[in-house]
């Protein structure tokens, strides 16, 4: 999973990016080897003897990633972490370093059983062997750093037709971020609408409100007068004036 990779190996690249940004915009960067102090820097307020780098690396950078990982594990059902781990077998970075035929076949069999028949799973296993040979041989697949770009190159070279089962699996994998983002938006929307003052709102009304909020870009283009006209045309209703 990319969060794990970022936590384990991403600090040096991150701090180099920060340093480059500070130099480019003439911003003073703190001495990472100096002692980290809090408050008014009085000795009685200093609880730990740690460096500035330790504070930003361990207490800030890693802690934020750990929090995100904890939120992910809590929010999503069992098996999602395994799904993301198996997805990494398709990652083309570092010359397809994570490529693993068994993991890719397990991904298709376990998480997309309705999209691949038993015969197609056997064919997928065979395709993957030839696929890796072509990925190492063809120049167009050198130095690719993401799965979407990999799919683009497969289409451009027309290898998507040859490795149609791999193409299908990659397309299925690429739908995961979309579904995850939709879930995140739904949770955020729910917290905004069903708060302490509206905690008795019904499920149907809540779903309608969430739909309007999530798709508000489309809802803003709807004419209220046309909605009122359609509502009046359904049937005659008694309106109680207050």
Automatic annotation (TrEMBL):
Ranges for domain HAT C-terminal dimerisation: 164-217
Gene Ontology molecular-function annotations: protein dimerization activity
InterPro entries for this protein: AtLOH3-like, HATC_C_dom, RNaseH-like_sf
Family annotation (PANTHER family): GENERAL TRANSCRIPTION FACTOR 2-RELATED ZINC FINGER PROTEIN, ZINC FINGER, MYM DOMAIN CONTAINING 1
Name of this protein: Uncharacterized protein LOC110753259
Organism: Prunus avium (Cherry)
